Amino acid sequence: MSLSAETGPLQAPAPARLLLVEDDETIRETVAEALGQEGFAVEACGDGLQAMALLNGSGPGSNEIDGARFDLLVLDVMLPGLGGLDLCRQLRQRQNGIAILVVSARDTETDRVLGLEVGADDYLVKPFGMRELVARCRSLLRRSRQQGEAQGGATDDGASVLQAGDLRLFPEECRVTRAGQEVNLSPKEYRLLEMFMQNPKRVWSRDKLLERIWGIDFMGDSKTVDVHIRWLREKIETDPSAPKLILTVRGFGYRFG
Length: 257
Description:
alpha/beta; 2 domains; 5-stranded parallel beta sheet; Arc Repressor Mutant, subunit A; single chain; 39% helix; Rossmann fold
């Protein structure tokens, strides 16, 4: 059956839009070319201030990829002008939910945890293989799309409100309040809390939380769970250092209540 003139030909899905921030020109050009060959629409720049301008839609060439609307940010740590971690922190403070992959030659556990704490979704140590970089980019994009679909779609619990003390979660609105005040949660923080409140007393291991919230293809460090739990506690607990809602079960993981 042929398509009518009104329907028109089927359109191929638009390529994922990626902003690469790397101050080494040779590395920047090599990585940008390789990612372009893998089907990404790549914009590249060499410093943090230019990257922020592109993300805000105000930099030179900011309209080259759909008005500087990017799906993924691949971000070096050591940058002139505005460092990668500072850029990452500022984006999260402004509630910018773009998927962020930090790349760095700093490979200690402290460096990786710091990258996650300021808001990175994944952390890749230099030197890295191009196949691993591409795999991590695709993994982040899949998780980002899944989270968007989960928040935009219907919930399993219909219109029911989940409640624990003065903490209330409204599944249909993807909204949380505490003592009547709105609690601003990131998509992952919201999904963690929703899963905890739907399954009170159940103990979740870090691996199971990664599988349920980040996806089975997550390639990052399991410590990202601890980082997000700490952020969540800071927003919903009266005293985050002595939590009453999200409890640590030593040697096993976490439970709610």
